[in-house]
Automatic annotation (TrEMBL):
UniProt domain Peptidase M1 membrane alanine aminopeptidase: residue ranges: 376-583
Keyword field: Aminopeptidase, Hydrolase, Protease, Signal
Chain residue ranges for the region called Disordered: 796-815
Organism annotation: Pseudoalteromonas distincta
Enzyme class: hydrolase
Entry-linked InterPro entries: Peptidase_M1_aminopeptidases, Peptidase_M1_dom, Peptidase_M4/M1_CTD_sf
Protein name: M1 family metallopeptidase
EC assignment: 3.4.11.-
GO molecular function, one term: aminopeptidase activity
Length: 815
């Protein structure tokens, strides 16, 4: 059967269209092919009995378990922690262990720690320092002085097994190895104990993840205590001991277990902690216990300790102590907070279900929190659980807490530290800015969200920060926009554009301590990527199903990036290797340019029609300026002056149709099969518009092409071209778009809603648009010569005393 090949005539290049339109497709040269769709399994760990190819825990998946029994005492005056702990370690691995590794996070503050000795000086130095001094902030000086004045890091003693025999220990920076007296075989347990102590750091001085804050005006402190006890490092199937030192950016990966913790503090302190309070009758008044019960079913938060009570408590101070007893089951860490300044409110989150029907959402904050905390903290805690549970699993713990203190934002099981406060004004009121309100809502949602990721879905934060920060930032953006979509949550594709075209990038899959800019890399970029994956590539139904499957598969377990990547593909049914490779393993960016749009029309094969069209196209071309001016001057051509000297070609042009061509056309028609004739006749009758669009991938990151087509009649249409269009040539592609005869295009826009993080939206428009910008008028100042010190004159200046300064400020003449 003969194959028909119809031609499309372009309005812009009628005769040489095939070579012009196809030019970009032949620039590929031998050996230069790059497969952006190469399967990612080549780079991922091989599936095994511990982790399946589907991204699920394998049939022999295991993880260790550690239970802690801790007694700890807070010395408020000395800002010191002393404690003892008994640890039960269960070896669920198939390996025999001769030693255990523990994390000593407080050792990061020792002057000889790796973190401290590798700090770099960031101020610019001139070649002649005397001309322009380098800069050292008062904050840096304060930090140096605090570290010089205080002995920091752990003091550890009495490390013994359950028979009372001493265990040999070796401290390596922020880690400690305990050599076991007998090897710990698979399936067996070992118990050991130790004493520990350390001086609590002043958080404002060191910028730590925990510490104390001192209030000069009332002499009190808020203590946020985390990373406070020697904790077992994780032992995993993919890395064995995860014994990377704590350098500051990389957080932790820990083992799940049960905690029994007794916390002794000044008797007038209020304590918030991981777990459930086990001795409320001993540390709370009957009124406080009644209020807690009332809060379980209240529509709005109920104060357990109200503002007046907290303010009165601030004035007291005592040498007596109370011991608060908390128990927590199946958590991977434990943190707590203590202060006599705390107000305390609570509200029951009636979650329902079988896991944890009632969760007590609670907030602890000083008077400095003001109405900002009273109105929003606990409500934001409840909102977070409501949203996160929809996309993952029911909140499994009895409490979810938000505590105000010096730490801007940090998370632990059941408890979070959050920083924003109100400002005391001269009239005695406390106010807060819109930015501070947004900050509080954002940080509470983010930190409480971390109780899900990674406190339950237990990813390795020190190795892959994005697995907790990125996934959580994506979800806090979902929760945040369900609270108030007008607040900029920082997870939109447009929020990552400047970083993606910067020169300080590293791939997302970079160990956290080596990341150059942690915020954009570990938070914003992965969050924006998941936003694009959900809204643009997979759609909400497929994405939400796959993401929830991941969360439920790895609840109380330890996933790796491969497990996340594989689960999202396996559960969605979509090959996403190109997406993971581009977004997570490279520093490519999105920059898709729409270079040209050709408007073409289907040739009829009828020479009388087609040649007439070509004559019209030729007539539409601009006339030569030379010819136009000759005509304007009234000049006649030689032929016009000698009309008798003409021939056939003066009456017929190159578009004149001959019978030979008509015969050829008739022969062509007769040679068509019935279906071919019918197809041709329909196409000619419909006379549709054919547009060839040329795209360039300037950023290297392959992405779907989102098109907005605008027609002459003012209507618009959205078109979605999957990323697979780039699979044979990721640099340049062409796409044929066909529209109805009465729907001619007037313009085309790529990614009109800025949904793909395209770094240059100005090459997304065809025709190109005029770029809007601004210009500011300014007055040019005369350059000032450098003024030298006139010491002879300046020495005459009278020294202002505070008394004289106050008189001047009040408009009085100094006495």
């Amino acid at each position: 059967m003969k194959k028909i090949g119809l031609t499309l005539s372009a309005f812009v290049l009628p005769l040489a269209i095939s070579s012009a339109v196809m030019a970009s497709s032949v620039e590929q040269t031998k050996g230069s092919f790059v497969d952006k769709f190469r399967q990612l399994d080549e780079a991922l760990p091989t599936p095994n009995v511990y982790r399946s190819a589907a991204g699920e825990p394998g049939e022999k998946y295991w993880q260790q378990r550690v239970n802690y029994d801790i007694d700890v005492k807070l010395d408020e005056k000395k800002h010191r922690i002393t404690g003892s702990q008994s640890i039960e370690y269960k070896n669920n691995s198939p390996h025999t262990l001769k030693y255990l590794w523990l994390q000593l996070d407080q050792n990061i503050f020792k002057s000889d720690s790796i973190a401290e000795t590798t700090k770099t000086f960031k101020s610019t130095l001139e070649s002649l320092p005397a001309q322009k001094p380098a800069k050292l902030s008062l904050g840096d000086l304060r930090r140096q002085q605090f570290m010089s004045d205080n002995e920091l890091g752990y003091t550890i003693s009495g490390v013994k097994d359950d028979d009372g025999k001493e265990l040999r220990v070796t401290v390596v920076d922020t880690l400690m190895r305990i050599d076991l007296n007998e090897p710990l075989k698979p399936g067996k347990e070992v118990e050991f104990s130790m004493n520990f102590a350390f001086n609590i750091v002043e958080e404002d001085a060191l910028g730590a993840r925990s510490g104390y804050e001192h209030f000069e005006e009332d002499g009190n402190d808020i203590f946020l205590i985390a990373q406070w006890f020697p904790r077992l490092a994780a032992y995993t199937d993919y890395e064995a001991w995860t014994n990377k030192p704590f350098l500051g950016s990389g957080e932790f990966t820990l083992e799940f277990g049960d905690y029994d913790v007794e916390i002794t503090v000044p008797a007038d302190h209020i304590v918030s902690a991981t777990g459930k309070l086990d001795n409320a009758s001993k540390v709370l008044t009957s009124t406080q216990r009644k209020r807690l019960k009332q809060a379980e079913t209240s529509k709005r938060p109920v104060f357990i300790v109200n503002a007046e009570e907290a303010l009165e408590n601030e004035k007291e101070g005592t040498d007596k102590t109370k011991t608060w007893h908390f128990k927590a089951q199946n958590v991977r860490d434990f943190a707590w907070a203590s202060s006599r300044k705390f107000m305390w409110d609570a509200k029951g989150y009636q979650q329902g279900g079988d896991v944890q029907p009632l969760v007590m959402a609670m907030s602890f904050f000083p008077k400095e929190g003001g109405d900002l905390w009273k109105k929003y903290s606990t409500e934001a805690v409840v909102h977070t659980m409501e949203v996160y549970s929809k996309y993952s699993f029911d909140y499994p713990y009895p409490t979810a807490q938000s505590v105000n203190g010096p730490v801007g934002g940090m998370e632990y099981p059941m408890i979070t530290f959050n920083g924003p406060r109100t400002k005391l004004q001269d009239d005695g009121t406390r106010t807060y800015s819109q930015a501070e309100k947004r900050f509080l809502l954002g940080v509470v949602i983010h930190e409480v969200g971390h109780i899900y990721f990674p406190m339950i879905v237990n990813s390795d934060e020190r190795q892959w920060t994005w697995m907790d920060e990125g996934l959580n930032s994506f979800l806090d953006g979902v929760a945040g926009r369900e609270w108030d979509p007008t607040i900029p949550w920082g997870v939109e594709p447009r929020d990552i554009v400047s970083y993606m075209k910067s020169e300080v990038q590293v791939p997302i899959m970079t160990q956290s301590d080596s990341v150059l800019r942690l915020g954009p890399n570990a938070y914003t970029k992965p969050a924006a990527a998941l936003n694009i994956l959900r809204e643009v590539i997979l759609g909400r139904d497929l994405f939400d199903f796959a993401f929830k499957e991941y969360a439920q598969r790895w609840k109380y377990k330890r996933p790796t990036p491969a497990d996340f990547f594989r689960t999202m593909e396996e559960a969605s049914g979509v090959d996403l290797d190109w997406f993971w490779r581009g977004w997570f393993y490279t520093t490519d960016h999105v920059d898709i340019s729409l270079d040209k749009v050709y408007q073409l029309r289907l040739d009829t094969k009828n020479p009388d029609i087609d040649y007439s069209r070509l004559r019209d196209i030729e007539a539409d071309k601009p006339t030569s300026l030379f010819v136009e001016r000759n005509r304007a001057e009234g000049k006649k051509t030689w032929v016009e002056q000698n009309p008798d000297v003409t021939d056939f070609y003066d009456e017929n042009d190159r578009f004149t149709v001959t019978n030979k061509e008509r015969n050829s056309y008739n022969k062509f028609l007769k040679g068509l099969e019935p279906w071919e004739r019918k197809t041709l006749e329909r196409a000619l009758e419909e006379d549709k518009n054919y547009y060839v669009m040329e795209f360039s991938n300037l950023g290297g990151l392959v992405m779907p092409i989102l098109l907005e087509l605008t027609y002459e009649d003012g209507t618009t249409e959205e078109r979605y071209i999957p990323a697979e269009i780039w699979r044979r040539n990721y640099k340049n592609v062409q796409k044929l778009i066909v529209t109805d005869k009465n729907k001619p295009l007037v313009s085309v826009t790529v990614d009109p809603g800025w949904e793909t993080a395209d770094v240059d939206v100005e090459n997304n428009n065809y025709p190109r648009r005029i770029i809007p910008s601004r210009i500011e008028v300014f007055k040019k100042e005369k350059s000032k010569a450098k003024v030298s010190r006139d010491i002879m004159q300046d020495i005459k200046t009278e020294l202002k005393t505070d008394e004289k300064k106050d008189e001047k400020d009040n408009g009085e003449e100094p006495q």
